[in-house]
Write a structure and sequence with these properties.
By secondary structure, the chain is mainly alpha-helical. It is built from six helices and no strands. Helix 4 runs antiparallel to helix 6.
């Protein structure tokens, strides 16, 4: 009896997996939809607000993403721009897919630039603290050797060789290493 229940639970779990994973994909898409839909609303209200809503789709789409508009609705395409009041679901899906991809790439680029700026700032702060400590202690410390100069392991090796760090320096060193771990995780996710 218990074995039958277990097998029934396993079967139900396996049947539910496709719906569960599909739900996660939609949530992931919704994250990027927020950005471009906000742009679309601004276009509808400001740039194309003087047009009748049913006839403004070319204006709104071009304002939302000129690149995707040219790719899907541009004059060089087979069908060309939408006629006033025309609804073409296939091209609408292509446009939405293109805008999502464009938004995702832009957000990834922004996040990468932010991580690089943060990493550089952390390294500069840590190096400045090391210099100040060197002046204060008069001791010779090895160079920082962060991720940019040879990888995370070199940073760990150099931090182990140096004199004991105070709490603030330990926190800075930990932030530098966590930044390197975040970079590796982001690179893995983008695969």
């Amino acid at each position: 009896m218990i074995a039958r229940r277990r097998s029934l639970v396993r079967a139900l779990t396996l049947l539910a997996l496709p719906w569960y994973s599909a739900g996660n994909t939609n949530n992931h898409k919704a994250k990027y939809d927020r950005y471009w839909k906000a742009t679309k609303k601004t276009c509808e209200r400001d740039t194309c607000g003087h047009l009748v809503p049913d006839e403004a789709m070319n204006c709104v789409n071009e304002c939302t993403s000129p690149g995707c508009f040219a790719e899907v609705y541009g004059p060089g395409t087979e069908e060309g721009p939408l006629e006033d009041g025309e609804v073409d679901r296939d091209r609408e899906r292509k446009f939405t897919s293109c805008v999502r991809k464009e938004t995702r790439e832009a957000r990834m680029r922004e996040n990468k630039e932010k991580r690089e700026r943060d990493k550089k700032e952390r390294e500069e702060r840590l190096e400045e603290k090391r210099k100040n400590r060197k002046k204060k202690d008069g001791a010779e410390l090895p160079p920082m050797g962060g991720v940019a100069e040879g990888g995370t392991m070199k940073a760990l090796h150099n931090s182990a060789e140096s004199a004991p760090l105070d709490e603030e320096e330990e926190k800075e060193e930990e932030e530098l290493l966590m930044g390197a771990i975040d970079e590796m995780a982001e690179a893995y996710e983008s695969l």
